[in-house]
Amino acid sequence: MPDLASDAARPFAPVQAARIAVAALAAAAVWFEVWEPLAPLSLIGVAALIFAGWPIAREAASNLLARRMTMELSMTIAIVAAASISEFFTALVVTVFVLVAEELERLTAARGRRAIGDLVEFVPREARVRRGSAVVTLAVDAVAIGDRVLVIPGERIPVDGAVVEGHSTVDQSRITGESMPAEKTVGSFAYAGSINQDGAIEIVVERVGRDTSYGRIIEAVESAERSRAPVQRLADRLAGYLVYFAFAAAATTFLVTGDVRDTISVIIVAGACGIAAGTPLAILGAIGRAARMGAIVKGGMHLETLGRIDTVVLDKTGTLTFGEPRVQAVHAAPGIAEDEVLRLAAAAELRSEHPLARAVVQAAEARGVALVEPAAFTNTLGRGITAEIAGAQVLVGNRRLLAETGIAVPAPHAAEIGSEVLVAQAGRYLGQIVLADRVRPEAHDAIAGLTALGIRTLLLTGDSAAVADAVARQIGIAEVEAGLLPEHKLARVAALVAGGRVVAMVGDGINDAPALSRADLGVAMGSGTDVAQESADIVLLGNDLLKFVDTVRLARRTRAIIWQNFAGTLGVDLIGMALAAAGFLSPLVAASIHVGSEMVFLLNSARLLPRGSNG
Ligand SMILES: Nc1ncnc2c1ncn2[C@@H]1O[C@H](COP(=O)(O)OP(=O)(O)OP(=O)(O)O)[C@@H](O)[C@H]1O
Ligand SMILES: [Zn+2]
To answer: Which compartments does it reside in (predicted)?
Structure first.
């Protein structure tokens, strides 16, 4: 049972091969009774067992000292027992089996590790940095934020940053999971770890190394490898119990039948590496595969939770929509100019980070309206802005904000469904600005995918019921709750969790951060706030909701594979021990069943490893 973290990196050692060869040759020599001066004690057998069995016995001794019940322990006992009744052939062949199995396990585990190694290796170590008119090649560590990095066609992009020159298409599938090449022109954002295809581009460095999106993927996978998921601890415990059980069964067999060979078979047949090594391999493989799709799962525990979720709560703005509303129309009250409505709104919104605020300011700029700085302003959660402009109080926000101040507002324009931003000055209604956000094109299919998995979906939003209903209809979410303040979203999620649902909340961190952290699983959009991405359990780097659905499927499959291995191991071991106790299994057959079944379960886990990890 090799330890994934430490042993797997070790290549196939020549001495290990020598041990296997020596044990195999000695087994043949014993079989043909080549040189047996001291029969029934086989000198060749003893010498070969000491040489070949040494690592197994050493591992067994250290496990014994650490009070860990492992296969090495039971196998050592079985080998010694076989030798002590002069069954040297059996002892040697079992030794070969154990050594070969360990080597195979190590190779499988190494594949898991290599998937991570490839990940780390993929980002170039050097970058071409512009220095005045010259271009110098620097180690990526020496590149500073604000430097201009040049990337020629065919090269991998070494840093995260905005393109300031050139035009190209890049393959950024490793970061966002999108299979189509993405076009990069001046102003687009380029990710470290993507491959520049046909044009030279120049990038202003914004993030380097572990701070890049790709660096975060690596970090997530590495930490997933270090942290043990609860199911992994369960696997270790179960493996230990199996060894105890095998000892008890062997003792019983010996007491009842008095047959040493059958007793040895009972010990040998019970294997648990399929779960002890297969469980971490499955988790690592799944996390690596999710990372390939642009879904960073920050640990095996979250993967496990994801496999159990039955409810997904989604935020609207920034999650189901792009979170980039655009002004559709400005409706001014009689006698008021549209530009005046926009001017006051933009002034009030000037310092607000809210997506609606930014859209209003942008629209004002686009129309050439002069922007004035507000003398004072306050932001009321879920309502809007109260500002002081040119000595008058200006309200910019939703119906709730104006109604609470006693300002009458005409009914919404039936022509458009959009978020409305109402504007009032000194207690008088001036007009409204209608904004619309684009629904993410994959949102509809993503919801359908979740529904097909039997998952309940809810849309929670601070926006008006009219907008929320329109979005919900468009993407096929049945349950909608609108007009919610952040604390309402939190309470709603808390109620679902208290009701026994396993809840994932998908959001962008703008006014849904408390709910994100309250859910069993917080899923942050890559376009969301940094805080949300940092505190979330899963980050969707590419903002692709379909990849979230794929990740849910993957998590369920991982759970299924782990449980298949659990059940399979228990079944094989119990049936094997019963057959061995009844005298149906020779130690050799018992050893092949042990090793054979373990390899099947290990390969079952290895199915989850990302494919083509070199590409
Ligand atoms: N700066 C602002 N300017 C104008 N209106 C605002 C502002 N901040 C909040 N509002 C109003 O309050 C409502 C709720 O805002 P909140 O930020 O909680 O949710 P949201 O962004 O509309 O949607 P979601 O909850 O889906 O993210 C908005 O729809 C808007 O009507
Ligand atoms: Zn084993």
So the answer is: Cell membrane; Membrane
Could you tell me the pTM of the whole model? Answer: 0.82
Report the pLDDT averaged over residues 375-404: 91
The CA-based angle 100-106-107, given to 5 degrees, is: 90
Q: Give the Å distance between the CA of 304 and the centre of ligand 2.
A: 25
615 in a structural domain: no
ipTM field: 0.95
Give yes or no: residues 374 and 474 share one domain.
no
Beta pairing class for 392-397 and 384-389: antiparallel
Reported as a single tens digit per residue, the pLDDT across 468-490 is 999 999 999 989 999 998 889 99
- Determine which one of 236, 315, 437, 550 is catalytic: 315
Residue with CA nearest ligand 1 atom 7:
384
Interatomic CA distance for residues 376 and 386, integer angstroms: 8
Distance 344 CA to ligand 1 centre (A): 18
Q: Give me the CATH number covering residue 448.
A: 3.40.50.1000
Phi, psi of 69 (to 5 degrees): -85, 115
- Considering the domain architecture, whether residues 430 and 446 belong to the same structural domain is answered as no
Domain count, the chain: 4
pLDDT digit string, tens, across residues 128-154: 999 888 889 988 888 999 999 999 998
Q: Is residue 613 in some structural domain?
A: no
- Whether 315 is a known active-site residue: answer yes
11 and 43 in a single domain? The answer is: yes
Probe ligand 1: pick from 352, 490, 511, max atoms within 8 Å of CB?
511
Domain that holds residue 162: 126-211
User: Ligand 1 test: best mutation among 320, 327, 350, 354, most atoms within 8 Å of CB?
Assistant: 354
Let me know the angle formed at the C-alpha of 97 by 587 and 267, rounded to the nearest 5 degrees: 40
Closest C-alpha to 403, from 417, 390, 420: 420
Q: Which of 543, 563, 592 is the last residue of a domain?
A: 543
